[in-house]
C-alpha cells in the first residue's frame, strides 16, 4: 500500500508541475491514467500568487495556500487548461 501511495504522490506532483507549466500533453497523460486527480489540490506559496501588495510594495503574506487545480488554472489565466479540466469533470464549485 505504501508504494502505491508514494507512486500516486509522485504522479500528483507531476500533475501539479504540469499545471503550473501549462503542459497540456502531460496533464492529459496523467488524467488518462488517474482521472480522480482532476480535483486534486496543490499547495502554492502565497507570495507566488501576490508578490506585491496594492501599493506595489513586496507582499507580506507568508505560508502556503491550498488551491484546487481549477483555481491554479484560473490564476494563470490558462483557458485551454480550464477547458481540459472541465472536459475531464472537474468540480467547478469545490468549496
Strands, helices and their partners?
Elements: H1 2-20, H2 24-33, E1 41-45, H3 46-49, E2 64-68, H4 69-76, H5 79-87
Antiparallel strand pairs: 1-2
Helix pairs in contact: 1-2, 4-5
What does this structure look like?
This protein has 95 residues and is mainly alpha-helical. Helix content is 53%, strand content 11%. It contains five helices and two strands, in the order ααβαβαα. Helix 1 runs antiparallel to helix 2 and helix 4 (69-76) runs antiparallel to helix 5 (79-87).
Quick overview of this protein structure:
This protein is mainly α.
Category from helices, strands and their pairing? mainly alpha
> Alpha-carbon distance between the termini?
30 Å
Percent range for β-strand residues: 5-15%
Q: pLDDT below 50 for ≥5 consecutive residues: which ranges?
A: 1-7
Main sheet strand line-up: 1-2
Total DSSP helices: 5
CATH class: Mainly Alpha
Total tally of structural domains: 1
Largest sheet: 2 strands, antiparallel
Shape: globular
CATH topology: Serine Threonine Protein Phosphatase 5, Tetratricopeptide repeat
Task: Bin the helical content.
Answer: 40-55%
- The CATH architecture category equals Alpha Horseshoe
What's the count of strands? Answer: 2
The ordered string of helix (H) and strand (E) elements is HHEHEHH
Oligomer: single chain
Chain-averaged pLDDT: 75
Amino acid at each position: 500500500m505504501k508504494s502505491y501511495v508514494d507512486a500516486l504522490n509522485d504522479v500528483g506532483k507531476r500533475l501539479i508541475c504540469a499545471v503550473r507549466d501549462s503542459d497540456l500533453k502531460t496533464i492529459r497523460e496523467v488524467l488518462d491514467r488517474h482521472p480522480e486527480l482532476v480535483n486534486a489540490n496543490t499547495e502554492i506559496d502565497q507570495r507566488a500568487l501576490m508578490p506585491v501588495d496594492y501599493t506595489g510594495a513586496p507582499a507580506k503574506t507568508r505560508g502556503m495556500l491550498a488551491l484546487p487545480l481549477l483555481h491554479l488554472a484560473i490564476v494563470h489565466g490558462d483557458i485551454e487548461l480550464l477547458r481540459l479540466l472541465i472536459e475531464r469533470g472537474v468540480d467547478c464549485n469545490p468549496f
